Amino acid sequence: MQEDFHYYATYCAAYISGYSHDESLDIAYSAQFVDQCSRTLLAKIKGPLDAATTQLQLELMDARTDPIGLQDITRIWSAFHFLPKDLYAKKEHCNRHYLNKYRLICGPNGDLVEKTVELAKGRPLQSVGIAMHVLADTWAHSNFAGTPSLVINNTNYEFYELFPVEDGFREKQIKFRHKTSVPDDLDNSIYTNSLYQSNENSIMNLGHGRAGHLPDYSFVRYRYLPAWGDYEEIIKDNPSDYHKAFTQMIYAMKYIRGVNDSFEKNTYDTDAIEPWRDRIKNIIEKRQLLACDDWKAFGEELSGQEIEDFVIDKYFDEYKKSGKKEKDETFIGKFIRGAMAHKGMVIDEISKSGNILAGIAKQFFWVKLLEGKKNDVVSKD
Q1: Nearest-CA neighbor of 47 among 367, 332, 311?
Q2: By three-state DSSP, how is residue 17 classified?
Q3: How far apart are CA 83 and CA 65, in angstroms?
């Protein structure tokens, strides 16, 4: 997903779920900041590098792809962008190494989604934003894994965009190119993807790179043959998935706020959006590279307040100018603690499943944050 959904749509979902305008802005900022908080950024503000929630392209190009380096990559991308759906999935006639990768395939409504939402309950708004980013990405990034793998993440020429017509869908074969300097051509179904590399562990085979930005566009529908699915056809209906992501975020945030007693998988608060159902549907299905303006206009109508644009360094000075003891209580400090708590939880669950691809949760000790303060360490190497 992109800024349009992680920032503006998340603001809308937070406001509909009952948060105030200012609270919704904090949640939205935190959700979007997950896509910005790299080690390069953390070094700039003198934050702990272990709290990184993403990696820049330049960082990835320099990343090691030996077992230790791959574990580092997997910890970040599986935790925050490709949350595994089933760490105990079964697959016949495959070796353990392949099975470990197969079990990291992302998808919605897995056990880790429940743990992600539950971990955010009772914690600062920054943790709520992190959880909403992770939850939303389980819908957009489903069928791909947050670890470099040709056999899991590769695509081929059998890739078609589906356009609704009266009696079904009209198909158009998608053309991929590797020119990152030009935008995707929506009119001609020409999209940019990562360069094919036959090396199983090439960075080019991380996540949905081989499918380009298609998973990030709410309007698109497509069918393709993923290698991990024994080349059986999958139809990806992003408008339906993004609608479920939006209504599941509302349901999840009502649980976090205490309105709902529990958070259950496969549950969506569709009643909450009834007054704006067509409006939301039109935004999601509109063919455009970014839907920021439409989501922003909708959010401002909801709250009657101006939604400031995302400014990455909004809270940097507060963090940098705070003393060592005060940093934890700054906006960025709370984000960092929330990120490390979530990352540690995911690594711990992957490790407990017997899967070594994310390593173990040693330095990523995760803490329960009650009333914005550190509590006892829950898991440490």
Answers
A1: 332
A2: helix
A3: 21
Q: Measuring CA to CA, how many Å separate 375 from each of 6, 337, 378? A: 29, 11, 9
The DSSP code for 84 is B
CA distance 121 to 257: 7
Alpha carbons within 13 angstroms on the beta-carbon side of residue 208 total 23
Q: Where are the domains of the chain?
A: 3-142+238-379, 152-237
With 90 as the cut, is the pLDDT of residue 376 above it? no
The sign of the CA dihedral 29, 332, 76, 115 is negative
How far, in Å, CA of 269 to CA of 280, rounded?
14
pLDDT in tens, 276-316: 999 999 999 999 999 999 999 999 999 999 999 999 999 99
| Contact present, 88 and 111 (Cβ < 8 Å) | no
Q: Is this prediction's pTM over 0.70?
A: yes
Please give the distance of CA 2 from its chain centroid, rounded to a whole number: 9
How far is Cα of residue 145 from the mean position of the Cα atoms in its chain? 12
Q: Which of 55, 87, 85 is nearest to 70 (CA)?
A: 55
Q: How far is CA 232 from CA 161, 176, 226, 266, in A?
A: 17, 21, 7, 24
pLDDT of residue 126: 98
Strands (E), 90-240: 159-165, 168-173, 175-177, 190-192, 221-224, 234-237
Closest by alpha carbon to 190, among 182, 202, 200? 182
Quote the CA–CA distance of 124 and 209 in Å, as a whole number. 33
- For the chain, the distance separating the N- and C-terminal CA atoms, rounded to the nearest angstrom, is 33
Kind and range of the H or E element at 367?
strand 366-370
Whether residue 371 has pLDDT greater than 70: no
| Helix (H), strand (E) counts: the chain | 15, 8
Read off the pLDDT of residues 213-241 as tens digits, 9 standing for 90 and up: 999 999 999 999 888 877 788 999 999 99
DSSP letters spanning 317-356: HHHHHS-TTTGGGSHHHHHHHHHHHHHHHHHHHHHHTT--
Closest CA to 54 of 82, 29, 26: 82
Cβ-in-10-Å burial (0-12, 13-18, 19+) of 95 comes to exposed
CA nearest neighbour of 255 among 111, 114, 80, 106: 114
**Helix, coil or strand: residue 231:** coil
